[in-house]
Design goal:
Structural class: mainly alpha
Number of strands: 2
Shape: elongated
Distance between the termini: 85 Å
Helix content: 55-70%
Mean pLDDT: 75
Strand content: 5-15%
Number of helices: 9
Low-confidence stretches: 1-26, 99-106
Number of domains: 2
Length: 226
């Protein structure tokens, strides 16, 4: 029987029957990823909120898929989805950490899950004070734009969508918020219930990644009549 060389793995070849190539799919690694890619992009975009950053996540997923030991992978689609979600969450968390170093005293830090009870209590108090200052100093729209942008690194387009305003207007809201906080202007009264609701939403977002709750609270306040 005629034989020829058939790919048996990276850098290895073996002799096999002429019909063997029909049983081997050289591009199987790529085809699996290409089929899963649209769904992976939706997952990444839903988590990071930015199309370009979602594309970066998908690129890293592809690189990891290429390096993975696929001989032990039973469900490639599940692995790809899990990898994408983890990479996207890590990207969001790293953005939070970057913001903590430059946002200044106006925003509370995210909560460390391994912190002592005393440290957690201190951060809760700091969150209450910081949120109170934001509510005293900024309009609801300025506050929403500022917290999402400076606290959680949201893209301007996503903030604009949540608040129902244009991107240019969103940038203005962030800029005006920064000016008001720096100017130390007269404070406005704050409703205790609204303050507690926003503190809880912020802590939930910082500690557990519950951004949907924070978005809902900020957007509702920003869209409500003055």
């Amino acid at each position: 029987m005629e034989t020829h060389l058939v790919e048996a793995g990276p850098g290895r070849r073996r002799a096999g029957p002429a019909q063997a190539p029909a049983m081997v799919v050289p591009d199987d690694v790529t085809s699996v990823f290409v089929q899963a890619r649209p769904g992976l992009l939706k997952i990444a975009h839903r988590i990071v909120g930015d199309r370009n950053e979602a594309e970066d996540v998908i690129q890293e997923t592809w690189l990891r898929w290429q390096r993975a030991d696929r001989t032990v992978v039973r469900n490639p689609s599940a692995l790809l989805r899990t990898t994408t979600a983890r990479l996207a969450i890590n990207l969001v968390r790293s953005a939070w950490k970057r913001r903590e170093t430059c946002a200044g005293p106006w925003l509370p830090e995210s909560t460390d899950l391994d912190a002592t009870p005393e440290a957690v209590a201190e951060r809760h108090d700091a969150a209450e004070e910081a949120v109170l200052l934001l509510m005293e100093s900024l309009t609801p729209r300025q506050r929403a734009a500022y917290v999402l942008r400076e606290g959680f690194d949201y893209p301007y387009g996503r903030i604009a969508e949540l608040l129902g305003i244009g991107v240019a207007n969103t940038r203005q809201q962030v800029s005006r918020a920064q000016e008001r906080l720096a100017a130390d202007r007269a404070r406005r009264p704050v409703d205790a219930v609204a303050h507690r609701r926003l503190v809880q939403a912020f802590l939930a977002a910082a500690q557990y990644g519950d951004l949907a709750r924070l978005e809902a609270v900020l957007a509702a306040e920003a869209r409500s009549p003055a």
